Amino acid sequence: MQVEVRVFATLRRYLPELDIGEPKLLEVPQGTTLGEIREQLELPAEEVKVIMRNNRQADEEGLAQDGDRITYIPAVAGG
Amino acid sequence: MSRKILRINMSDQSAVYEDIPEKWSKWAGRGLTSAIVLDEVEPTCHPLGPNNKLVIAPGWVSGTPAAPSSGRTSFGGKSPLTGTIKESNSGGLSSKKIAKLGLAAIILEGEPQNGEWYQLVITKDGVEFKDAPDLAGKGMYEVDEILWDQYPNKPAVIGIGPVGEKKLSNAGISVNDPEGKPGRYAGRGGLGAVMGARGVKAIVVDDEGGPGVDIADEDLLKQGRTKLRDAIMEHDLTKPDGGLNTYGTNVLMNIINEAGGLPTRNFSAGQFEGAADISGERVAEMVEKRGGEGMTGHGCHPGCIIQCSNIYPDEEGEAVVSVVEYETAWALGANCGIDDLDYVAEMTYQCNDLGLDTIEAGNTIAIAMEGGQIEFGDKEAALALFDEIREMSPLGRIYGQGVEATAKAFGVHRVPTVKGQSMPAYEPRAIKGIGVTYATSPMGADHTAGYTIAPEIAGVGGKVDPLDEEGKSDLSLTFQAATAFVDSTGYCLFIAFPILDISSGWEGMAESVAGVTGLDITGDDVIDVGKEILRMEREFNKKAGFTAQDDRLPEFMRYEKLPPHNEVWSMSDEELDQVYAWTNGK
Ligand code: SF4
After folding, report:
1. Measured between beta carbons, which residues in chain B are less than 8 angstroms from residue A51?
2. DSSP string of chain A, one letter each residue
3. Ligand 1 pocket: which residues have CB below 6 Å?
4. From 3.30.450.40, 3.30.1490.20, 3.40.50.300, 3.60.9.10, which CATH number describes the B4-205 domain?
5. Domain spans of chain A?
6. I need a surface site. Which of A20, B51, B132, B423 has the fewest CB within 10 A?
7. For the segment B19-59, what is each residue's pLDDT rounded down to a tens digit?
């Protein structure tokens, strides 16, 4: 199955080939967790503060589904 | 030497220094502006009339040696935009300089009989009242430049643009930045009009030779300061090369868009297809590519160690404006359907020069778009609206009044305001806690008043689901109280992020306040002290005629579903009333 993955802010340096907001398309087997996808992309666990799946908060143990929009987010905030 | 209150009466151009009375002696920053406004301003007065006052106060630790990121100034009064009490705070050069003159607050009252414009010069020797016919009518860039030419030792300049002179409700108060330019604004709530109503175009503050700030316990201050600094330098968000330093607050654009909570085209959707092009990442890319005067990691006042600000360059690398921050890029960008940073930067310049709050200005343009005056996404037409304001055409005056006046003028009913003030860059239908803050804050719709975004979106200070309603009343109150405290310290609110996660930093903040003031305050007291401030502000609003019915979000949010989550605002009135039940003894 295929998922699209986005990374933002300081995490972009791990996928420098992507333009801002551009998704990386990944083929993963059924039963892959969001944590496993993070590992596959070599995003360090300690730098990923929040994960979103289809615009909702998710966690590492969550299972990816075909067509998911998955986003890894580092420490952000502002005003 | 105890701190003084400098009372400036514009009716007869007199100034007196008073010892700070016992009842106010524990307060600074927002706590002090709100205490003075509650005591001295008639809650039912007309905000532009002779009975309103403008109160200016640095925070508890402002002006002390090397307290990190502590250059914030609080401005308070009754707001022409909301009719409520207002505290709006700003970075820039003023806070430390006022504090170093030994002043707890400046109270500006009365109104000149002759309709003249004045420039006030405050030094260790007193206050000079100078006629300022040459400054009147000028934009803030020129005013700041003229005054730095006149006063070569780079004083703070607090001023208003043409919009403040005309006493329009979206007038902010400008404070100059380390480069001597406007761009630091006590923007929200129209306090620039309150300053204009006093006949004051600009206040020059020169602290040379001032007595400085008394410190009760040097060791405790040092200890607190170190803990706080360590927390800021350690946290991923605030450390050097961290998210804020690299991308500024606009690091949020893409994230809030991902969460489906980015208000788009006048709050009609929660995602904007052009978000990436106006994001902090894109700003950083432009700065890198264009070089020249452009920079990220800029500090809005000397001594900020987070440095979330930027200078946005044009194609030749010449500075256009500082700062293109999240709220600004959202208000003038996503919310107007505009995805061009160069236009966002140009409109931000116009706001800074004319003296407009960028949030209210962007929302006003979106209303004009909704009302059919111009098209969503039409950046040239959006920029041209500022000419109307500069010319003070009748339509320009309506725009200068902000969202509600403009919505009435164009017959628009999708009006994203609470208590007359328009919402900032977080959609309450997708992020429920911030909706509680918008509804219940004594300030009207204001994200900084209780920034639940930290746990709802960023996983800072805990992690909660933004779409969940459960527990959001309590969450909002806790953040509102903590914010009221931080707004009184002089520290930038952004220190809150590291110290919510690193408890020694939280203790350090309280210890630094105790160290300067001698007050018996620890980290455990922060929320209670913050609630005392909120209680004063709510009391003012109650006396001004505000009731629970004013603590509500606009009606359309209850029936219009917001994509992509297709949620409406469904928190009950009881849940909202719960937030401030404690002020009624419940
Ligand atoms: S963190 Fe940003 S807003 Fe806060 S004081 Fe520093 S530069 Fe100014």
Report:
1. none
2. -EEEEEE-GGGGGGSTTSPTTPPEEEE--TT-BHHHHHHHTT--GGG--EEEETTEEE-TTPBP-TT-EEEEE-S----
3. B 69, 91, 299-301, 304, 306-309, 492, 494
4. 3.60.9.10
5. 2-74
6. B51
7. 999 999 999 999 999 999 999 999 999 999 999 999 999 99
